[in-house]
Structure formats: structure tokens, C-alpha cells
Amino acid sequence: MKRILTSVLVLFSLILNAQDFDSELNKANSKFFEKNYQEALTDYQKLVDSDIGDEMQRSWAFGYIGVCQQELGNIEEAKKNYRKAMEMGTPGPSFYSKCLAIYKSEKDVNGQEFVLLAKKKNMPHDYRKVVKSLSYLYMNSKQFEKLLPVCDELIEWYPSNHKYHYFKAVSYQQLNDIESAKTEYRKAIELKPDDASSNMNLGMILFLKANSDFEEAIKSYESLAKPTNDDYQKSKQKLTVYRKKMREAEPMLLIAYKAKPNKNVKNALYNLYYKCKDYKTAKEYK
Length: 286
Prior knowledge:
14 helices; mainly alpha
């Protein structure tokens, strides 16, 4: 009986504690919404320095401290308190957006990642939106190893969206997994045949490999002191194969060049046609 009574008293104390916190938070909020940021800041600080309120309630106070500090021009203090609120699991969406905006203005990639990962954890209803934002952050900051698993999630959710196959292809290409990159570029093109970036990247991969093999075959033949007719025929056969492989890149390069004229693509088309002995067409890209 004594144990039950103690439990009831503890629960009652917690309820009063929470109510006290909410009451004081509302008072501070009234000053905040009147834009009395310095007075509100003082009240919020007293709250977090007190021993009342649970962690989630206190997270709101830390978030509002962050806003007050930002409004007062104390950006480092603002970031510190926003981060504290996020670490405590705050569900306040404005705290995430305000802190993220600061990190974006500072071009702080690690800070942006922190905010997005915290939001992903604390606000499950925004999970997919956050994962999309992470994909662009990792793509733009060239964090390709982190981008790959994010792309897998996005492809599972949005199987008809070509851009996530493109992001995945770029990641593989930058990580020197060229075969996987080609597979993903083809998937992106299958979903959006006129996508300039996927066509350009895949076309350049195919052309550069075929062109390298073509040049190596010529170099190998020319290195022979006394080439035989058999050597000549073998070299000729190799060049025919590599010309055919160059032609595989042609439609992709043409789509890319038509959509976004590019010096590298133009040079590739010139070399492709020249080496395939289509001299008339080659002149168009000289």
C-alpha cells in the first residue's frame, strides 16, 4: 500500500512539474511572439536551467532560445541551442528549417547533414522528404559512398523517377565501378530517353573506352618492326570492332549535344565520325 501511495505521489509530482513547465513556457512564448526576444530569451534560459519539465518539453525551450539568439544576431549560440533541441528530439519544424538555412548560408555541409539526419530521426512524417534532401546534399558535396544507399531507398519508393538512377550511376562512376555505372545510366535513359546528363555520361564512357582501344590497336601495329599481312588483317579487324563500339555511343552523344551543346561531346563526335571514316559528318563538329 505504501509503495502504491509513493508511486501515486511521484506521478502527481511529475504532472505538476510538467504543468509548471508548460505554464512558464507559455509566458515566455507570449514575449517571444511579441518579438521581445531578449526578455523571452531570459525566461527560456531560466526554464532550461531549472529542474522542471521532461526532455521533450525542454527541447522546445532550447529551440526557442535558438530562435531568440538568431534574431539577436548571435548565430553561434543559435546553432548550439538548435542542435541541443534536435539532440533532445524536438518536433518543432521551424527549428530544423532555421538551423538548416544558417548552415546553407555558411556552406557548412556537415552542419546541413546533422540537421537532416536529426530531422529524419525525430520527424518520421517527413522521412521521405528528408531523404530526398540528403541525396542532393551528398550529390552536390561529392559524398558518393553515402549517396549510394540513399539512392537505393529513393529508387524503391520512386521506381519511375530517372534522377535517382542517375545519381547512383554518377556515384558508381566516381567510385570507379564503371560497369555498375553503365547499368544505372541505362536504367535512367530507359525511364527518360532524352535525359541529357545520363546520355552524355554514358555516351562518353562508351566512346572513350572504344577510342582508347582504337588508339592502342594502332599503336600496337605501328610498333611492329616488320608487320606481316596477317598482322595487318588482325589490326584491321580490331579497328572494325572498335569503330562499331564507337557507333554504340553515337545516339547518346547526339541526344546530349542537341540538348546541351558541350565542347567535350562535340570533340567526341568529331573523333567518332573521323575514325569511322565519315569525314563529311565529322566536319560538322570540327
